[in-house]
Amino acid sequence: MDWLTFSIVIGCLLVSAFFSASETALTGASRASMLRLSKQGNREAGVVSSLFAMRERMIGALLLGNNIANIGASALATGIFTAWFGEVGVLYATAVMTVMVVIFAEVLPKTIAINAPDRVALLVARPMKLMVYLLGPLLTVIEAIVRMLMKALGIKIGANQPILSPTERLRGAVDLLHHEGKVEKQDRDM
């Protein structure tokens, strides 16, 4: 029984790693690259673009999936450790699961995704689209609760719009590329 539970804990950590990598990749992927690839016939890029169009719902699915996996893994591990060590097993489970979640379900997958966000986004696009669809009804309830809470707190939805215009953001990106040595001065000025 412990091995089955242990296997489920590992499975939950893998699911959490998937959601963590997906979050980083889908928030860091280039919209321009996805649009270009989509126009060239890449179907996954089209799926990524459709996820961009429902960003709030996508982020909700990522966070919900990740939290369910992490909480499930921790709860099951606590059961294993308390069976092995008694009440002190709660402390052991907390320590072990903190290390496992931070390293293997958060930092490692996010580091992989941040190094190749476009590639990872293309890999996770279809599974994430499915997760957004499957978690949709629950996400609708969560979004309604969040909107009610924001209204009760006096926070206006959409009030935090970007400070820079799209043109200013483009100029900033070109300046950054020039600073990194990827764009020559003449091209930057143009």
Integer tally of domains: 2
Q: Please state the average pLDDT score.
A: 88
The radius of gyration is: 21 Å
Using the alpha-carbon principal axes, give the shape.
globular
Annotation field: number of helices: 9
Helix/strand-derived class? mainly alpha
As a percent range, the share of strand residues is under 5%
H/E element string? HHHHHHHHH
Question: What is the strand tally?
Answer: 0
Q: What percent of the residues sit in helical stretches (DSSP H or I)?
A: over 70%
Q: State the end-to-end distance.
A: 67 Å
Q: How would a crystallographer describe the biggest sheet?
A: none
| Sequence stretches where pLDDT stays below 50 over 5 or more residues | none
Summarize the structure.
With 190 residues, the chain is mainly alpha-helical.
Question: How would you describe this structure to a colleague?
Answer:
The protein is an all-alpha fold. Helices cover 84% and strands 0% of the residues. The protein contains nine helices and no strands. Helix 1 runs antiparallel to helix 4 (55-85), helix 4 (55-85) crosses helix 6 and helix 5 crosses helix 6 (117-134). The chain starts with a helix and ends with a helix.
